[in-house]
Amino acid sequence: MDLSEMLLNLKILMFGGKGGVGKTTCASSSAIWAAEHGRNTLIISTDPAHSLGDSFGIALPPGEPTKNSLTPRLTDEEIEHLDLESVKVQELMEQYKEETGKFVILRGTITKGFINWLKGEKIYVRNRESRFDTPISKNINK
Fold this sequence. Notes:
Radius of gyration: 16 Å
Structural class: alpha/beta
Order of helices and strands: HEHEHEEHHE
Shape: globular
Strand content: 5-15%
CATH architecture: 3-Layer(aba) Sandwich
Strand order of the largest sheet: 1-5-2-4-3
GO molecular function, one term: ATP binding
InterPro entries: ArsA/GET3_ATPase-like, ATPase_ArsA/GET3, P-loop_NTPase
Number of helices: 5
CATH superfamily: P-loop containing nucleotide triphosphate hydrolases
Number of domains: 1
Family: Belongs to the arsA ATPase family.
Distance between the termini: 31 Å
Domain ArsA/GET3 Anion-transporting ATPase-like: 11-104
CATH class: Alpha Beta
CATH topology: Rossmann fold
Protein name: ArsA/GET3 Anion-transporting ATPase-like domain-containing protein
């Protein structure tokens, strides 16, 4: 199996790393490539720097999937930061309990691990509620 076959068979592709290593470039390029090869593709960024919108030359409203004119199969979404309102966190905790039978107990400050889980949950919910073949993420664990 070559790289292109492997990429076309992925359900989720994530890019991470330190600042300036090319996460936005790799995620954007991969999303365009997947869309041009017939995959309905969602690209999600959690970077507050708006670099994803800049790379496509468009303004992206936070939390709203936006059709991109580069290719009809590509939708991009920029999540400026994760909104941790109590109600939303509570809803996610209840959903997690319902789906897994496990409880989430928060004490004191919210840990980075829990924030990363919430970001992953955002991708899971987006993927489950839509028809995207390949949701590509950048900075998911930032």
